[in-house]
Amino acid sequence: MILAITRPVSPSIDRCELSHLERVPIDRARADVQHAAYVACLEDLGCRIERLAREPELPDSVFVEDCAVVVNELALLMRPGAESRRAELPSVAAALASYRELARIEAPGTIDGGDVLVAGRHVYVGATARTNRAGYEQLESALAPHGYEVQSVAVRGCLHLKSAVTAVSADTLLINPEFVSPDVFAGFELVEVDPREPAAANALCVGDALVVAAAYPETATRLEERGFAPRRVEADELAKAEGALTCCSLLLTV
Ligand code: CIR
């Protein structure tokens, strides 16, 4: 069974961190509706949902993915690159402690979960403004003993590695080649986003199912042409906070 840890949208989301987007007003009610539909989709796909308490003072706290990387062997708590986000960790750690042994990235390391793509035994780590070398090295030390091959990846023009590339099945990645070099991912089948939809590379794999953002129909068509049957969810209000689909949950097999 897949457990999905989620957290409702903070009422202070308007004060979220932004790196590559202009700040525009976020319609809280609409963001709530979209988030609820996202959670309902996960439930419909068979996930058990564990909802963390809303965090009124933590603007980005809906994006729980950035707080941890969870593999079968352990949960590794991140140390987010944005200081405003570090207070999100304790509640995520408390939830994960029931299911996994915990380990932590310590200062001076910084790393956001959005920068860590786990694809089988391969772990790709974005070198971004949020993730530094010390964070990368600590993650490698934590995961390599469990048989994971960890690799640092250059990323340009977007917030996180998973803004640029995500797994859509065990052997296929969805990628925007403008943001990350396809050459890095030798051995994987690649589906490129439609060039008119640069933000479309973030899709969420839930077991054998695939969830994509409704805002990127051309990329969804490309996936369908390659034999995928993606479900669409509306997430454009959350996208104004620079968050996408993987960011809104932590998925773990329990
Ligand atoms: C931030 O800048 O940290 C948030 N506004 C967005 C985080 C999105 N998370 C993700 O892509 N994993």
Question: Could you please describe the fold and organization of this structure?
Answer:
This protein is an alpha/beta fold. It contains six helices and 15 strands. The protein has helices at 28-44, 89-96, 133-143, 161-164, 217-225, 236-239, and strands spanning 2-6, 48-51, 68-70, 75-77, 102-104, 116-119, 122-127, 149-154, 165-167, 172-175, 189-192, 204-206, 209-213, 231-233, 250-253. A three-stranded mixed β-sheet has the order 2-1-15, with helices on one face. A three-stranded mixed β-sheet has the order 3-4-5, covered by helices on one side. A three-stranded mixed β-sheet has the order 6-7-8, covered by helices on one side. It starts with a strand and ends with a strand. The model has no long low-confidence stretch (mean pLDDT 98). Citrulline binds at residues 16-17, 19, 60, 63, 65-66, 82, 85, 114, 159-160, 162-163, 241-244, 247. Residues 16-17, 19, 60, 63, 65-66, 82, 85, 114, 159-160, 162-163, 241-244, 247 line the site of citrulline.
